[in-house]
Amino acid sequence: MKVLNEQSLVTTSTKNKPLHFLVKQMIDTLLSLCLLILLFPFLIIIALVIKLDSRGPVFYTQERIGLDGQPFLIIKFRTMYIDAEKHGPQWANQNDARITAVGYYLRKYRIDEIPQFINILRGEMSIIGPRPERLVFIEDFEKEIPHFRNRLQVKPGITGWAQINGGYDIDPKEKLDLDLYYIYNYSILLDFKIILKSIPVILFAKGWR
């Protein structure tokens, strides 16, 4: 797996907040473990519904780029048909024909992202952070935004400042600005604020694809 050049990443105030990020990691681990245990019966039902709805595996894994440019395999519930990318990598659209009937609702209410709590337990993600992108898209964005990879100074998250302030509806430059705002202004209080603002985004299916 290809790794981004770590020397191109700038050092920020996050390197000077080791206690903050230790607390953040502890909270991530505890919450993820509790949620996976509590939701386990529900997740079994979701898995069965996915298998009945369309041919293919229950889970979908894809390489994403994480902290300091390190690649990892993100885990999600499968929401598309198994040949979804036979024509190459592409963005998902809200009315994408590649999305299964069950996948439509899993994506709409972000249920497909619940397995990412496993990525958090593995130390690859956080509950709060920049959205993890694919290398092919990062390299594409960097043609117009040379410093796009600066958002890789923290672990990617299931939700984040950019996700609740535009999500898929903002362009890469706006996304970078919002992610850098989070990185430079990180605090436990800001994380708590993002979690609270994420609730209506999920409940009212805002900005999904």
Protein model, in words:
This protein is mainly α and 209 residues long. Helix content is 43%, strand content 10%. It contains 7 helices and 4 strands. The chain has helices spanning 18-53, 101-108, 116-121, 135-141, 161-164, 172-184, 188-203; strands at residues 59-65, 71-77, 126-128, 157-159. The strands form 2 sheets. It has a two-stranded antiparallel sheet with strand order 1-2. It has a two-stranded parallel ribbon with strand order 3-4. It is globular and about 45 Å long. The two termini are 27 Å apart. The model is unreliable at 1-13 (pLDDT under 50).
Brief rundown of the structure:
With 209 residues, the chain is mainly alpha-helical.
Residue share in helices? 40-55%
Q: What is the strand tally?
A: 4
Structural class: mainly alpha
Order of helices and strands: HEEHHEHEHHH
Q: What general outline do the C-alpha atoms trace?
A: globular
Q: What portion of residues belong to β-strands?
A: 5-15%
Largest sheet: 2 strands, antiparallel
Number of helical segments? 7
Sequence stretches where pLDDT stays below 50 over 5 or more residues = 1-13
Strand order of the largest sheet: 1-2
Compute the separation of the termini in Å: 27 Å
Using only CA atoms, what is the Rg?
17 Å
**Whole-number average pLDDT?**
86
